[in-house]
Amino acid sequence: MTTMSGSDTAPPRMGRATMRDVAALAGVSLKTVSRVVNHEAGVSEDLRDRVAQAVGRLDYTHNLSASNLRRSHGRTGVVGALVQDVSNSFSVALLRSLEDAARERHCVVLAASIDEETDRERSLVADLVARRVDGLILMPSTTDQSYLAAEVRAGFPAVFVDRPPRGIAADSVLVENRRGAREAVKHLLSNGHTRIAVLVDLASIPTAADRLRGYEMALRSAGLRVDPELVVTGLRTSDEAQAALMTMMTGDNPPTAVFACRNILSIGAILALRSLGLSHRVALVGFDDFPLADLMTPSLTVMRQDVRAIGRRAAELLFARIEGDRSAPKSLVSTPTLVVRGSGEIGPFDVGRQRSR
């Protein structure tokens, strides 16, 4: 191996080493260093060795993003993913699926939570676009995403998950929320329930609105009216869901079954029924599965979304766009399935009568 002249110790330096520092220490041109660190052809073994030694002595780390931006395709090897809450099990599974797809393509994922805050969404999208991510997976909280129109027209890849794009034409991977909610409530009806409570997130969220609509459709199809006292919307946390259900269950005419329209609301419902000693008396079906749901007592019956498949499909659409697909926007739809575990199969029980004894 060819050795460089001079001391074995790199000269004192403030801050991170640059490509120019490597070129100076190795005694080669900046172009030669660029070719070596980018694994390009046309450099002799002698020069490669000199550059490699300088890189080691300076602890130089190659700036891949800057290098990619200088290339003709302009890619950074980074994609963005904005979900409602990175701590929620739905988002976790979605991000893991996206991460697996990105890793296969030597890309990394930058993820953040929107938390149903419209200003936060717009700010995060602007930050990611400014950082030149190659594409974006978005679970929007805004009712209009036309603020992305210029970027999308310019070819910026964006794929919407769980919620449809509005104000722009873009790819999406959605779930049949209305159908899933209708099937969940029909399941409770088939077990003899007629007073079925529903716990819903913000009604302004398209998924929540669709699930509430599915609940209403199932009741009306069965010849039942929707009782406003059994409908609670605007629930954001498990604590809020727990409090709402406890209020209903201790009222004059409590429900015999509950449909929770989101996994975190299902957790609140479980806690409420457990605290009242009604876990085996009141039927419960949740929309969305979550870890340990099958270990509850009784195990939770759910409408399960295939989140990994949703994430995989979204990733396939995104990377196809990044790689040059310019076809018309696609909308893929996933159908949730009922997973029977026990909580949704409990028959009607007169809670009010039990309290009066």
- How large is the share of residues in beta strands? 5-15%
The shape, in one word, is: elongated
Secondary-structure element order, as H and E? HHHHEHEHEHEEHEHEHEHEEHEEH
Task: List unreliable stretches of 5+ residues.
Answer: none
> And the CATH topology of the largest domain?
Rossmann fold
How many domain regions? 3
CATH superfamily of the largest domain: Response regulator
Strand order of the largest sheet: 2-1-3-4-5-11
Distance between the termini: 92 Å
Put simply, the count of helices is 13
- Give the C-alpha Rg: 27 Å
CATH architecture of the largest domain: 3-Layer(aba) Sandwich
Structural class: alpha/beta
Largest sheet: 6 strands, parallel
Binned, the helix content reads: 40-55%
Q: What average pLDDT do the residues reach? A: 90
Summarize the helices and strands and which ones pair or pack:
Elements: H1 19-26, H2 30-37, H3 45-58, H4 64-70, E1 78-83, H5 89-104, E2 108-113, H6 118-130, E3 136-138, H7 149-153, E4 158-161, E5 171-175, H8 177-190, E6 196-199, H9 206-221, E7 231-232, H10 238-249, E8 257-260, H11 263-275, E9 283-287, E10 301-304, H12 307-322, E11 331-334, E12 337-339, H13 351-356
Parallel strand pairs: 1-2, 1-3, 3-4, 4-5, 5-11, 6-7, 6-8, 8-9, 9-10
Antiparallel strand pairs: 10-12
Helix pairs in contact: 1-2, 1-3, 5-12, 8-9, 10-11
